[in-house]
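Hey,

The postdoc asked me to send both predictions to you directly instead of through the lab channel. I've kept everything plain text so nothing gets mangled by the mail client. Protein one:
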Amino acid sequence: MLFSLLLTLAPALAAAHGAVTSYIIDGKTYPGYEGFSPQPGAQIIQRQWPDYNPIMTAGAGSMTCNGGSSAPLSAKIAAGTNITAVWKQWTHQQGPVMVWMYPCDNGFASCDGKQKKWFKIDQMGLYGAALNSNDWGTGVVYKNLKWSSKIPASLKPGNYLIRHELLALHQSNTPQFYPECAQIEVTGSGTATAPSNLLASIPGYAPQSDPGIMVDIYNGKATSYKCPGPDVWTG
């Protein structure tokens, strides 16, 4: 009976984490997936992820898009406008938010996100003075269950993956990664691309030992925080 109870509770316990479940572009909501509720054949822009459980190592292959490899649709968005990611739930308030993009020059079907082409368009780490506080990017997500980011105005039009990543640091030296990807088609007259020094591979943008990943917010000696990976490219 205890075993049956644990099986029943397992999804609920895991669901205490969170993931992006929809997107808002120009006032229109694009639904995504929800943990433990796969939707075979769903006509959505988000690459399907399996559940709310975190990824525990920076080098895991699933870091790219939380195991998602394809989606049937994409959403158009003009360069210079905002995309808002929406979480149905999120429970951790210590750690950064990082938003990445990846060009899919040959279309989405063959775009696996495995090359060194990822670039950041937005991030927020610690904005207060104390690591052991709620003054973090993920604390903002906790309060609002939303995160809006501007697509760089000068970005070259084309197909892109957009990847929202929450890195939870509430357990000492036990980072938890929560990434999800969606497919967007950027429109506009821009010609710019991110410079090579701001490009990264995912997995591989930082080692597990990076001081922005392996963090003790309670007993560590750090007095400031730098998000792992390259700096943001704003265009």
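Protein two:
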Amino acid sequence: MEFPHRTKLLLSLFSILTLLSAFNFTHVSGLSGRQLLQTENTSEPLRHSDDTVRVDPLDHFNKYKGGFDITNKHYWSSTIFTGIPGYAIGVAWLLCGIGYGGFLVVTTFWSKSGNRKLKKKSFSCYKHCYLWHIILASFFTILAIAALGLVLGGNVKFHSRASTVVDIVIETANNASGTIYNTTGAMRNIRENLETTDVGFQASNFLTSTSDQLDDEAADIEREARKNRRLIHKGLNIVYIITTVIVSLNLVAVIALSVSGFLKFRRAVQWLIVFCWFLTILCWFSFGLYFFLENFVGDTCTALEDFQQDPYNSSLSSILPCDELLSAKPVLSEVSAGIYDLVNEVNSNITSLQQTMSLNLVYVCNPFSEPPEYKYLQGNCPENTIPIGEIPKALKVFISTSNFKTVEAYTTSIQNLLNAYPGMEDLVECQTVKDAFSEILIKHCEPLKRYVRMVWVAMVFLSVIMVVLVLVWTTKARHERNYHSSDGSVKHHIAAANMLDSGMANAGNGNTDHTLV
């Protein structure tokens, strides 16, 4: 049996295969929810979803038609721009606040400098208006607290689900690096086994250099995965923390405003109105942010569906190198065919020996199906056959010690290749990526879209309530300001009139006494 030549050929083919897979899969090392990976390949995706045709502010507000492509800045700008309703309303509310503040400054200055006339006003409606203000403020405060609870609950669920998706995809990259490490471990075992044979030196050098390159590629995958995991989790945590802080501040401010208003702490109410006005601006901006995130999540899930249907012609083709990994499949087929032919040759020799020497030898289990499929049949051996790794045991009593070591080295090497074969097959066929995307689609896409929609809808509800609540308290504060100002003026003039009347009365009494005297 001529093992050396075939074994060297199989080792060479398998090493080429693992190198091709490792080099290509390095580009997938940063796979993630928002940032699936960043590659130098910026080719246009072959299929585009109409949902991504949006206004692009970086392209003079022309329509973006490049499809889902996270490596394209125009995709990001057009998607972020979908939150323009929230951004625009937030800016408008800010301008209204600035305008109203300026109006208060002008009117206050004007009233102090020139408006000294006594205004006759009817204050009969003060208590009636005060009662209605309190009722409205209480009602909208309760609604605001309910909306804050919805935002907080949706934000927690969205953050948890998004973190789970990121962990799934990062784990996919780690599994790829683990597959490569398993392969290099098998190759090191092969190198150690072949050191005792006559082809040991040449094979050892080849396997050493190849396994070192593969280890470097696997280390790159792990390093990129760790870096992207940190970056993405940092981004998700920032969004989560900012939203939680805005919700918490809103809750405190709304309650404090209500308490201060009920207790008639005028100065505290004025400052809290300003603070709530600012928080309302943040709520509108948050609505725009989560509206953009819903569009991005929808685009991502649509892209994953396209990928599941055709991994080699989808909107993710520009960032996932499955078509490049597919180019390594012929090498994998060569390895399969080589092992298949080798096992058939061994079994043919066994048949010859049985006919010539009347030996009762068992046949070797062929781990691959017949051509042209060469499908790997792991653990599916017929009865009265043995795996390749057990050949030395079957031949131990028939061959010399030196030949036994040679056969053991070669058969163990082939068995090590077979042990690493399933992982390499999944890597080449992009099966690990398909499985990860399938899990995301089935278990996480719909909940992600539902929770992010829940957040932005609740944020719109909260923003509208905050606008009404701020207007109610602003109206009440201004009403009380005018009331107290006018009331003070009335009291001042009444006091002056009383003093005048008292002085005149005293003067009259003095004159009367003088006349009598």
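Summary for protein two, as requested: The beta strands are 54-56, 62-64, 363-364, 385-386.

Thanks,
C.
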